[in-house]
Write a structure and sequence with these properties.
Number of domains: 2
Distance between the termini: 19 Å
CATH superfamily of the largest domain: Ribonuclease H-like superfamily/Ribonuclease H
Structural class: alpha/beta
Helix content: 25-40%
CATH class of the largest domain: Alpha Beta
Shape: elongated
Largest sheet: 5 strands, mixed
Number of helices: 9
Strand content: 5-15%
Length: 249
């Protein structure tokens, strides 16, 4: 099982070295590249004022956070949620830097925990720059490039941005282009005349001629293998189908 966590944060400003803190964390869980129902979102009281510039980006005000818990109050649940997962983050050094700073602040001089001690990290900004050199690779630009709808986002938000990044990441790394597509949407528009009930199931004659089995040609197998290699490359060696193929050998 491959467990990935799409993670994003909102902060009081840009530099933890200047005393800026995390004010929101949002996470979306993927299991084998499919969304689970597992989400993590938490607003945090940073114990300091939010920069006006940052407030204009995410819309979170100081008043909204006065009754929210401190980072130390939520850290146990957060670390348990992300433990052992592969973290997918856009501009990972920024978010990891802030998370590790929070862990350092609460360590009180002891050796602090670090996110990288329990998780691996994939930076989708670095990945995008390798795939699209010389182009804009911010999240909005990637949404346009991969036809991911972010029209509902007027301000940044950690959970909302994590959900958008999940769609972008799946599109970037091959194949699946939507995280929240309803795989049963065709049933919603079905009418009573086209729904197949159990009594309508037709049984095939057991004495019917066997269906021919058409094997893939060498050229088709080579094309399939090349596509798996490309998926594996784009996903940083995380192609599930290639792992299954190796396991069956």
């Amino acid at each position: 099982m491959t467990r990935q966590i799409i993670l994003d944060t909102e902060t009081t400003g840009l530099e933890p070295s200047e005393g800026h803190r995390i004010i929101e964390i949002g996470c979306v869980e993927l299991i084998n590249r499919r969304a689970s129902n597992n989400r993590y979102q938490q607003y945090i009281n940073p114990g300091r004022e939010i920069d006006q510039g940052a407030m204009e980006v995410h819309g979170i005000t100081n008043e909204m956070l006065t009754d929210k818990p401190k980072f130390a109050d939520i850290v146990k649940d957060l670390l348990e949620f992300i433990k052992g997962a592969e973290l997918i983050i856009h501009n990972a050094p920024f978010d990891i830097g802030f998370l590790n700073n929070e862990l350092s602040v609460m360590a009180n001089g002891k050796a602090p925990l670090r996110v990288e001690d329990s998780c691996t990290v994939v930076d989708t900004l670095k990945l995008a720059r390798g795939m699209h050199p010389g182009q804009k690779n911010d999240l909005d630009s990637l949404c346009r490039r991969y036809n991911v709808d972010n029209s509902h986002r007027t301000l940044h938000g950690a959970l909302l941005d994590a959900e958008i990044l999940a769609d972008v990441y799946l599109a970037m790394t091959g194949g699946q282009t939507g995280l929240f597509e309803d795989t049963h949407s065709h049933l919603k528009n079905a009418t009573a005349t086209n729904i197949v009930e159990p009594s309508d199931i037709r049984r095939l004659d057991p004495n019917r001629p066997k269906l021919p089995v058409i094997a893939a040609s060498a050229e088709e197998l080579a094309t399939h293998q090349a596509w798996l290699e490309e998926l594996d490359k784009k996903s940083g060696g995380k192609c599930v189908w290639k792992k299954i193929e190796l396991a069956s050998q």
